[in-house]
Specification:
It is built from one helix and 18 strands. The chain is an all-beta fold and 259 residues long.
Length: 259
């Protein structure tokens, strides 16, 4: 579609509320779409929005500031969605969606499951962002508050992301990798005196072939509250990080200087 010159994207979701979102190019149109999770109890949902529609039929009631948008995909979630992330979780090209939800209270009481994770994948051929299939599932009796995806180690089959999960209440940090139709945990660290608060994977050391784990934790000086760590075979190694007061609560990466 051709948009009028100077049209600003002023999109907003047609419903609310949503708890978390992530972005990714789900239909190979060159720009990012939005996957959002919301709802609670037995009324959870996962929805994919395209705020700048480039192909497909136009709907007169789905145009904002002369820019058409559409809902590409929507699926009910049998619980309360809590986390969502987008990354490369298999060798096939294109992003996958990883989301987690807390099952309804009746289910949680019967099997002690606190969180269920699902991985959704799009078709390999001609992806349009509207068709997704569940390719992996993982249940755990742990709850998590933060999630990040990124490549921490070289593995056969090309660049595949690891999964980083944080539980701020228990102070735990856990690392997972996809193993067939499930997830496998390969690292865990928990500390009440040095609780982990947030994490992200980013390239902070240019001469390393993979990303580094960048974390923040709630500690006092002289302990370092902000850490850059490298995964080496079976453990994390601290590379750098300052002691900050107050300790950071959130961490994220961005290309600020263009390098």
């Amino acid at each position: 579609f051709d948009y009028p010159a100077g049209s600003d994207v002023q999109w907003k979701s047609p419903d609310a509320p949503y708890r978390a979102f992530a972005t990714g190019d789900f239909n190979d149109d060159g720009d990012a779409e939005i996957v959002a999770i919301g709802g609670s109890g037995s009324g959870g949902r996962l929805v994919i929005f395209d705020p700048v529609l480039t192909t497909g039929p136009l709907k007169p009631d789905q145009i904002i500031n002369e820019i058409p948008w559409d809902t590409l995909y929507s699926v009910p979630v049998p619980g309360t969605p809590v986390l969502v992330a987008v990354g490369e979780l298999d060798p096939a090209p294109g992003p996958e969606i990883l989301y987690g939800y807390e099952p309804a209270a009746t289910a949680a009481a019967s099997d002690a499951t606190a969180t269920i994770f699902k991985i959704l994948a799009r078709p390999a051929a001609n992806p349009d962002g509207r068709t997704w299939s569940e390719v992996a599932s993982y249940s755990t009796n742990n709850r998590f508050t933060d999630i990040a995806l990124g490549e921490l180690e070289l593995r056969p089959g090309g660049a595949i992301d690891e999964v980083v999960l944080i539980n701020e209440e228990s102070g735990s940090l856990e690392l997972f990798r996809r193993l067939g139709a499930s997830l496998e945990r390969f690292y865990r660290d928990e500390s009440e005196s040095r609780p982990w608060s947030d994490a992200v994977v980013g390239r902070t050391v240019n001469d390393l072939p993979v990303g580094q784990l960048i974390t923040v934790r709630n500690v006092d000086i002289p302990l370092r509250s902000w850490l850059v760590q490298e995964w080496r075979t079976d453990h994390l190694v601290d590379i750098t990080g300052p002691a900050l007061r107050p300790a950071p609560r959130v961490v994220f990466t961005a290309d600020i200087n263009g390098s």
